[in-house]
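Trying the structure run again after the queue cleared.
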Amino acid sequence: MAAPKMQDAWSRRAVLAGFTAASLVAAAPAGAQDNKARPVATYQQELDQLEAATRGAHEYATNNFGVGIVLHVGRDISGRPDADAALAQVERYLINEFAKRGVEARVFPRSNSDTVASGVAYHIDQYIHGANNGTALKDLQTALDSIPDVIALLRAAKGLALNQSEPGTPGGG
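Done. Tokens:
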């Protein structure tokens, strides 16, 4: 039975990449469980991009009062004749939606060419929005709808971190 072994492999990769297993499996290229679709080695470039984007978003979110956004670029963007312009437009739009609310954000795109629709994962301080309930990977509309909740989590996480670093507060010395 190859599927459980494949899921175990994806789960290990998810932990290494800083993703929940559910979000990574959702982001896995279509046909990833069909070993005849493409040799596993062909996924290496996309896995490297996933790791780099995830690491970049995590580091940005941890070191800034802002949101790191991993944008999993599906064929809805990459398959367009104006793919570069479309990607830049989506990146700008996401950043501007946070900026309108007084929050900085940075987008870390990665190719997910076997997937029809693009997806978004928000990194907030040490957290991934939705990781606790299986909604870490969001379609673009859900990602936009989630912005107020993402900002509330950012303020709570960074506020807690700021309070813990102050002398005289629990955990702050």
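Confidence is low (pLDDT under 50) at residues 1-35, 165-173. Worth checking whether this holds up in the mutant runs.
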